[in-house]
Design goal:
Elements: E1 13-16, E2 22-29, E3 33-39, E4 44-47, E5 52-55, E6 59-65, H1 68-71, H2 73-77, E7 83-89, E8 95-100, E9 107-111, E10 118-121, E11 126-130, E12 133-139, E13 154-160, E14 163-167, E15 174-178, E16 181-185, E17 200-204, H3 217-221
């Protein structure tokens, strides 16, 4: 693994896939973070466009458009990207990829196999993934949950049994993010948590989200939550 100038207290971690493949990665940086992933020959990483920071000489990049049935009309309406970048190690030895968060944020690895194979995220929470991770978009069709804009309407759905990296976090809990602070909440059955809608980074599929206006109508008119 390339030696960083400095790194966070996060130590290099080795992800073991369901197929017993070992993939080391390390999260580097402080307020602005990137994830560095080691790839053996023929291994791949899928990332959102514009997130690449550096790659080794054996890594090749390919721009792949998401099949139309995985994107949906709401992806187009809200101007979200419909392509992904595939980083493929075509060399004979190990290579590495550095994927950077687009803004000041925490990068957390989520092993989907540990959380029922599915989580729901904010529209732009997905950063990159290794192995079996499918990124699609879902629309909350319950009228009581819908507010103007994509924030409370369109969500990313990550499904599969692979390793996903998302901005701000994700687990079998609600994850709250405020600037660089990530709070992990484990909800018992029937437990209710009230939080600002823009602070929810990701939830598992078993969590029901109901969006409500807080306070008088003038707050909605003047753009307050």
């Amino acid at each position: 693994m390339a030696a960083p100038f400095f790194s966070t207290p996060f130590q290099p971690y080795v992800y073991q896939s369901p197929q017993d493949a070992m993939i080391p990665f390390q999260i580097l940086g402080g307020e602005a973070q990137l994830v560095q992933i080691m790839l053996k020959p023929e291994e791949k990483v899928i990332a959102k466009p514009g997130s690449m920071c550096f790659i080794s000489g054996s890594i090749e990049m390919e721009n792949v458009f998401v099949p139309e049935n995985e994107v949906g009309v709401w992806q187009w309406l809200f101007g979200k990207t419909v392509s992904s970048i595939v980083f493929h190690n075509n060399g004979q030895g190990d290579g590495f990829v550095g994927i950077v968060a687009p803004s000041l944020a925490r990068i957390l690895p989520i092993d989907l196999a540990m959380f029922g194979g599915e989580i729901l995220c904010q529209p732009d929470a997905f950063l990159c993934s290794v192995n079996d991770v499918k990124v699609s978009n879902t629309v909350d069709q319950r009228a009581r949950n819908i507010i103007p804009g994509a924030e409370g309407f369109v969500r990313q759905k990550l499904s599969g049994q692979g390793l996903a990296f998302i901005i701000a976090g994700g687990s079998d809990m609600s994850l709250l993010s405020s600037f660089l602070l990530v709070v992990q909440k484990n909800l018992d059955a029937g437990e209710v948590l009230s939080v600002d809608v823009s602070c929810i980074a990701a939830v598992t599929a078993t969590v029901n989200i109901q969006i409500k206006y807080n306070g008088p109508m003038r707050r909605a008119v003047f753009g307050e939550n």
